[in-house]
Structures are given as C-alpha cells and as structure tokens.
Amino acid sequence: MPGSEVPASIRERLPVTTRGLSIVVPLLNEAPGLAALHDRISTFALKLKQRYGLPCEAIYVDDGSTDATLTVARDLPADSLDVQTVSLSRNFGKEAALMAGLDHARLGAVLFMDGDGQHSPDLAEQLVRHWIEGGYDVVYTAKAHRQNESVLRRFAVHNFYSLVNWGARQKIPEDAGDFRLLSPRAAQALRMMPERNRFFKGLTSWIGFRQMRVDYEPEPRAFGTTTFNTRRLLGLSIEGLTSFSVAPLRVASLLGVLIAFFALLFGLSIMWETLTTGKSVPGYPSLVVGMMTLGGVQLIVIGVLGEYIGKILSELKARPIYFVAEQSLRTTSGHVEAA
Ligand code: UDP
Ligand code: MG
C-alpha cells in the first residue's frame, strides 16, 4: 500500500503545497549513460511513491548536446514517474540548464542532480528524508574531503570561499555541490531571484530557510570526462565572486590604503635622511620601483572594476537566461504533450 511505511503523523506534516518532487537533470552530451541513469531514477521514484505516497517527475534538460542525448531522453519510459524533456536552443551552461529545469518543475519540491551518474539516487533518498521527516528546506551535499585533488586546487578553492564569504551575512558553505534538494518554498524563492548571472550554490544559500548539509563522496563519472576544466572553473569562480561579494573591490581599496601608507613612510624617511645628513637621496631605482608597483596595482584594480561593470551591463540588458527549442511531457498515465 502506498505510504504504508511512514507514520501518518509524518505524512500530515508534508506542506500542503507539496504535490511531489521534480528531479532536474542537466545534460550535455550524456547519451551513453542516460538510460541507465533513468533506470536508477525510476527505482528511486518508485520507492518515494511507496514510502511517502509522493509522485515524482524527471526533467531532463538538454543543454545543447551535440550527441544523441535528446533522442535518448525523448524515448525514456514514463513508468514510475512523469518524464519531461526540455531542449535548450544551444549550450547555455549548467547554471542556465538548472534554471530551465527549475522553471519547468511542476510538483513543488525540486531535486537537482547531475546527469553523469556522479550523484547517486541512494543519497537522494537521504536528502528527501531530511526534507520530509526533518522539515529542512534546503538539503545540500558537500564533498566529505578533497584528498584526491591537488594541493594547488585545494588552496584555490579555500581562498575562493574565504574571499566570497568575507564580511558576508550569509556564508556560502565550502565544498557544497549542485546536488541538492529544495522544498517548495525554497524553490519558489529561487525562482524569484531576478539576476541573469546565476551562481546556484550562492543563491540557494542566500535565500535562507532551514538549511542542512550532508557529506558525501561523489561517484566516478559513468562515461566521458568532466566538462569543467580549469578555465571554466576559473570563470565560474570569478562569476560567483563578482555576483556575491564586493570583496575584490574592498581588497583594492585596502591595497590603495596600504600602498599610500608605505609611500608616506618612505617619504618621511627620505626627508629625515636629507635633513640629518644633508645629502639628497639618489632617486632613480626607487622611482622606477614605485612607478612599476603603482602601475601594476592600478591595472589590476581597473580589471576588477571592469568585471563589475561587465556584470552591470549584462544585468542591464536583462536577456533571457535560456531559450527552449522544444519540450515534451509524458505522464505515467500515458498522457503526452509536445511543443
Ligand atoms: N552540464 C550542462 N551544461 C554544460 C556543462 C555541463 O548541462 O555546459 C551538465 C553535465 O551534462 C552534467 C553536469 O552538468 O550532467 C555536471 O557536469 P560535469 O560532470 O562535467 O561537471 P563536474 O561533475 O565535473 O562538476
Ligand atoms: Mg560530473
């Protein structure tokens, strides 16, 4: 009997707006592993139906794949959960694909998981339990450790978070991933964030509500290799940093104050030397060093300012975050819609 395992007291606590769980899966060239992933998601959905009486839907967002991802997605069986496919008009990036999935979610709560098999549906069960039984609104996963990553990368990641969170009221948790579950009200809050430059980790933490961290070990990718190389990660970091914090601007101001302070000390020491010894200080080397230091610092600061101005420009243009080329919905009852 559906829902028989869970005491009625818990089922009564399900928010009235909860009609089910939408599972959003962004896909870029994930054709080889997609059918297997859908099998695992279907089993997971069946379990949720039995345990909580919770209906599910999977939303496969094809982010401009060049392989057969969309064809495979269109044919996935809607046995134990409804299946939506949303195909974007080109590759807009993972953050945009997640947003597209969020916009198409029809069932209240939203679970984001990668399409490469690294996010296990078994762990997703745990996330759902924290939401339904624990009453948490944002259940996010974080890498338990980074031992298999290089020292340089760990150093960079740590410094990135220190900078983003510097003076921030709501800190972005370090190591948090995109594998996360949002309650209906958290999902709604996320939809209301107007910005074009989306940094999901930051946004889901910024909205507040009751947040819960779950440590996990990502599974190895089922097929292929990661699409996030160092250059893209760096881009995402700059994106996150400039979207979420004015720390770089503050660092620039601080640097200015610091340099001015040392210049003053240096100036005073020159004056002192001239006054006490009567000799004028030979100036050429100090002049060149001073000029070059200042020149470098100024260029860096202009670059930082430029990042923010670029951000203002893209927000001002207010372009849509993505375009949908085609979409379809197949329900467990056999209903089919396509556009
Ligand atoms: N992805 C996407 N659009 C992109 C890049 C990636 O939809 O432009 C998807 C990709 O198919 C996968 C997920 O985002 O389902 C995570 O990508 P990946 O495994 O390459 O990143 P990593 O796990 O290394 O962070
Ligand atoms: Mg991956």
Automatic annotation (TrEMBL):
Membrane topology: Multi-pass membrane protein
Gene3D superfamilies: Spore Coat Polysaccharide Biosynthesis Protein SpsA, Chain A
Annotated transmembrane regions: 251-272, 284-309
Compartments, as annotated in UniProt: Membrane
UniProt main location, coarse: membrane
A Pfam family of this chain: Glycos_transf_2
The UniProt record lists the keyword Signal: no
Keyword annotations: Glycosyltransferase, Membrane, Transferase, Transmembrane, Transmembrane helix
SUPFAM superfamilies in alphabetical order: Nucleotide-diphospho-sugar transferases
Cytoplasm as UniProt keyword: no
InterPro entries: Glyco_trans_2-like (IPR001173), Glycosyltransferase_2 (IPR050256), Nucleotide-diphossugar_trans (IPR029044)
Domain Glycosyltransferase 2-like: 22-166
Database matches in CDD domains: DPM1_like_bac
Name listed for the protein in its UniProt record: Glycosyltransferase family 2 protein
Organism name: Afipia carboxydohydrogena (Pseudomonas carboxydohydrogena)
